[in-house]
Design goal:
Blueprint (H helix, E strand, L loop, with lengths): L1 E5 L4 H12 L3 E6 L12 E4 L7 H12 L4 E4 L12 H29 L2 E6 L12 H24 L3 E8 L19 H13 L4 E4 L1 H10 L4 H4 L5
Parallel strand pairs: 1-2, 1-4, 2-3, 4-5, 5-6, 6-7
Helix pairs in contact: 1-5, 3-4
Length: 234
């Protein structure tokens, strides 16, 4: 099996790439910071910035270098608390998590549609299930990603394509994305999350919330009325 991991220079993406290599996958990795990709043990590497217009062409070059692609795993993303709604933070988040996500998922989808089969797995977040006041653009962009993947599933079924979609929704993970002064509850280890992701991919799950604590939490907070939610001291 040949897999390409976007966003493999750190965190979940790096751990998933390492685990795939260990399990015998032929793996190609890409990220904006190419100097860190050597730590994955991948067969092919590429520098890809998902916010740049040449990112799809660079992905195609990586696919050719790897000799094909069966799985496309997307782990690229940014996020930051922004209680003051600083414009640069909001716009950069949408640029990466919205436009960058659409650019790369779309390219992988078109490749698989032409190939006749494939599997797209992408990290969205439990943050996309509710609007989070401390991080407006992050939670909104993650909701966009989840709905986009759901829409692709409907289109795949309508077109009769053999493409699988897996929406990965982790809780708080101990990565550079959540580094800083803010303390987060129920923090997960990237290695543990990576194992659950590989399991979800193998089982071809449509949606996987990681882990069980967050599955319970999201099921509960979905039921909180809007008038109560907006008053919660998050």
């Amino acid at each position: 099996m040949k897999a390409i991991v976007i966003g493999a220079s750190s965190g979940i993406g790096m751990e998933v790439a390492r685990l795939m290599v260990k399990e015998g996958w032929t793996v190609g990795v890409a990220a904006r910071r190419i100097e860190l990709l050597g730590e994955t043990g991948a067969a092919a590497t590429a520098q890809i910035d998902v916010t740049q217009e040449d990112a799809p062409q660079r992905l195609q070059q990586l696919i050719q270098q790897l000799g094909g692609m069966d799985l496309f795993f997307y782990a690229s993303g940014i996020g930051k608390q922004n209680r003051e709604l600083t414009a640069d933070i909001e716009l950069a988040t949408v640029q990466t998590n919205g436009l960058g996500f659409t650019r790369m998922i779309g390219e992988a989808y078109r490749y698989f549609a032409q190939q006749g089969y494939g599997h797209i797995a992408a990290i969205s977040s439990i943050a996309g299930t509710k609007g989070l006041g401390p991080a407006p653009s992050y939670s909104a962009s993650k909701a966009y990603q989840a709905v986009y993947l759901q829409a692709l599933e409907q289109q795949i079924y309508k077109r009769g394509l053999d493409i699988k979609i897996t929406d990965i929704r982790p809780g708080f993970v101990d990565t550079a994305l959540l580094s800083g002064d803010v303390r987060y509850p129920m923090m997960l280890k990237p290695e543990t999350v990576a194992k659950e992701i590989i399991c979800a991919i193998k089982k071809r799950r449509h949606i996987r919330i990681i882990d069980w604590k967050y599955r319970i939490m999201t099921a509960m907070w979905r039921r909180i009325p809007r008038w109560i939610w907006r008053r919660l001291p998050l």
